[in-house]
Amino acid sequence: MASGWLKRGRGQQMATAAALAEEHFVHREADGEATGKKQKTETEGRGFVAELLEKAPSTLQTCRSLLVFLDKKLEAAAPEAPPVGGPEELRSRLQVHADTLGRLTGLRAPAGWDARAKRVLDITAAAACPTAEAKLKAVQDRLDAAATDLAAKLKERGETLEAVTAERQSWAKEKVRREWLSWCARLLRVRETHLLAEVDGQKAVNTGSASGMTAVDILEALLIGKA
Fold it and tell me: Same domain, yes or no, for 121 and 42?
């Protein structure tokens, strides 16, 4: 009887622990979703600085034509994210490393950007300015330090960093360009709204936001995958 009581006690403890664990992860997931929504709302609410808006096309017809083009590009299904290789205990680090390096490589690449979308936002020009170059270099330095550690751990298992992350890096590089198109479309919609207001005689609307996003702000958002 004592043995049965102990078994029941252990069973109740395990059930309680499982329930607490489930509750913990549910709260973590909810908190993560809330944080993500808050960040997205804050980004969307900032608007854009006047300088950035003024570089976008200045006619309604051109804005709308480009929006049709961009929306069609963005409607195409995006490829699924490939997993990284390597040992299970390193995969979260390897994934972050591959994603960040892929995005950084994509943003630094001078070629391959759609010429029509560059009329809205030339991200390569933004990446070449001193402020952006300093930010990109800081990210590169952190990646280099992480790569040294990860490569050493993988070598012990007979694997290489490039081999286990190459496919994921390539995916991240293309993903950052798709997200850039999304930023171009968002900027165009604001520009279109301002042009319509100008037609109605509300020229003050076209001044942009003093605290709005600059091209470098968008570059940073692209680097971390923040919508």
Answer: no
Per-residue burial over 184-212, b if 16 or more Cβ lie within 10 Å, else e, is bbbbbebbbebbeeeeeeeeeeeebeeeb
pLDDT in tens, 69-105: 999 999 999 999 999 999 999 999 999 999 999 999 9
Whole-model pTM?
A: 0.78
Pair (163, 198) in one structural domain: yes
Domains: count for the chain:
2
Q: By residue range, what is the domain housing residue 17?
A: 1-46
Q: Which residues, other chains included, contact 136 with Cβ-Cβ below 8 Å and sequence gap of 6+?
A: 104, 107, 108, 127, 223
Check whether residue 61 and residue 155 sit in a common domain: yes
Mark whether 22 and 113 lie in a shared domain: no
Shared-domain flag, residues 30 and 132: no
pLDDT tens digits, 41-69: 445 557 899 999 999 999 999 999 999 99
Torsion, Cα of 174, 35, 29, 223 (10° steps): 20
12 in the same domain as 59 = no
